[in-house]
Please model this.
Amino acid sequence: MGQEARCALRFQDTIAEGKARLETDDLVFRGEDGLGLKLPFREMRSVEAVGGNLRVQLEDGLAIFELGTQAEKWAHRILNPKGLLDKLGVKPAMKVAVLGVDDPAFLADLRARTEDILFEQPESAAGAIFVAVDDAAGECLAALKRAIRPDGAVWVVFRKGRKDFNESDVLRGGLAAGLVDVKVVRFSGTHTASKFVIRKAERGRVQ
Model:
């Protein structure tokens, strides 16, 4: 999950109190007075931590987040974003299954990270399963829940911007399968990935 902190924001002629949240690719602010900002990392012209303030230069002005001791850590994360496989939690030599995800860049990076890759549902517990879904996901995810390690993950990869099947549908499918959603990652320019895991209370019973 993203990091969150209460802080003051100074932007243009406004000073607002609220919550800042550092997501995978964005810095989000929700003000108590209704002010809301979503700042994609790629649109930031410069980022620096000075005197406990996170200073973000944007095209339309300077945004200053008064984060105190967290300012330097947040600046480092913005300036040194993780690669996709790191965001997805794929470790060297991890057993991974890929079901219907046809993304050449992702597959090339995955092969460089681990040789233990299956392109069918695994018979023994996998550390991560990546599955492309474009309609009702509940039945599919219920079967995949039985194919991951107790601490493993099912990543549901789906196309952005669809009205007939979106993140809410994916979430309902995961809940119907008895899984918990814990993270959302920008998978590519066209797709999003949602991470589902087994509830902690159930992990001891999963074989």
Remarks:
- The chain has two domains: 3-79, 84-203.
- Residues 84-203 form a domain with the Rossmann fold fold (CATH 3.40.50.150).
- The mean pLDDT is 91.
